[in-house]
């Protein structure tokens, strides 16, 4: 464990965090800050995405909700708590930065996922980094490395941390053996994951909006009840984000290093921007134009971290729960208990149960998509599902710190493989965006993309035509 902790200290000290934020800055500049320039279009895309898709396929909204199944999960409740406990209030500032820059990354990931996806032959699609790396870059070794990291990291480690959080939240209310809770959880997870991506999307479309809105409303009640403290809390978050003196951070010794390390790591865990997970869900969307799904992907990142995670952070800081010395789901439960009474712990338990449940489903699906790309063996796919479920059963008996170290390591490897690919494929994102903008300027209300043409051939033909016109002139 010490070796893993040392590796993560190197990765998340500045290396991976710098790569992630640097990629965000790159896309912000190259795409002219889409998170700001096209922010209002996000809501139009959300409305129109509900109409996309058909009975067999997945709508843009359904794909977004399925992606949010992993984004609005334990990262929004537990990840924020661990960021505060380990990095102090300043970690929240770096979570916000990660999200704002991550919006441009999510936008690009979703577009690439649709441009290079493959049909399942039944009206649904599959895609993700392994597909756009192998097709777009023609570099299969990198795609294989990413897929293996996703298969192990998401299906095993990420699913385990979700299950661990659910089990801890449950044992905090009921005195039941963790393995029994894990077994019950896996039974319901199996019903969904063995039903395929369409069932995952349908389930998420119903439960995600209801759960998220309910959680936000209760959080806002606590925040408004302590609104007089809000300016001081916001000031604390900003000042602690740039605190170089550990002595000024109190007994915990919070510094800018800790705030940055845990803020970026937990920010990524909450919104998944840059680690290549959500593209697998967005690739399933049946939309008129890839950029439309890019807009909805940006909303997912914004909603998860800027809204939901902020609600959790403000609740913990305003109630003074951070001083309890607790971490993880226990810290979040303590904050809600202080905010609304003892029944607040039960509310967090319900939210954790549902958020964690749907996140496990999404995480296992991400692993499946990459296993299917790596090998089409259906028997191996079923074995993988069973193995993932088995690990969830016993994850409640593994120390929380150990699982989080495994998650941080998995996230780091995913970014190391995915971020460079995104940078090298950025020309296709820019090409799709220009196509969308041109159609809008020409008066087309709903721009359409010709999916029958290969994007690489289409871009090369346009470059060739432009060169010929230049030579003729």
Quick check: average pLDDT?
A: 83
The strands making up the biggest β-sheet line up spatially as: 1-2
Shape: globular
Global structural class: mainly alpha
The percentage of residues in β strands lies in: under 5%
Could you name the ranges where pLDDT drops below 50 across 5 or more consecutive residues?
246-252
The major pleated sheet works out as: 2 strands, antiparallel
Distance from first to last alpha carbon: 66 Å
Tell me the helix content: over 70%
Strand element count: 2
Assembly form of the protein: single chain
Radius of gyration: 22 Å
| SSE topology string | HHHHHHEEHHHHHHHHHHHHHH
Tally of alpha and pi helices:
20
Description:
The protein is an all-alpha fold and 473 residues long. Helix content is 77%, strand content 1%. It contains 20 helices and 2 strands. It has helices spanning 2-30, 34-37, 39-49, 60-71, 74-87, 90-115, 129-137, 140-171, 178-193, 197-225, 230-241, 256-271, 279-282, 290-319, 328-340, 344-374, 378-394, 400-424, 426-441, 455-472; strands spanning 118-119, 125-126. It has a two-stranded antiparallel ribbon with strand order 1-2. The longest helix has 32 residues, at 140-171. The chain starts with a helix and ends with a helix.
Which structural traits does this protein have?
two-stranded antiparallel ribbon, mainly alpha, globular, 473 residues, 20 helices, 77% helix
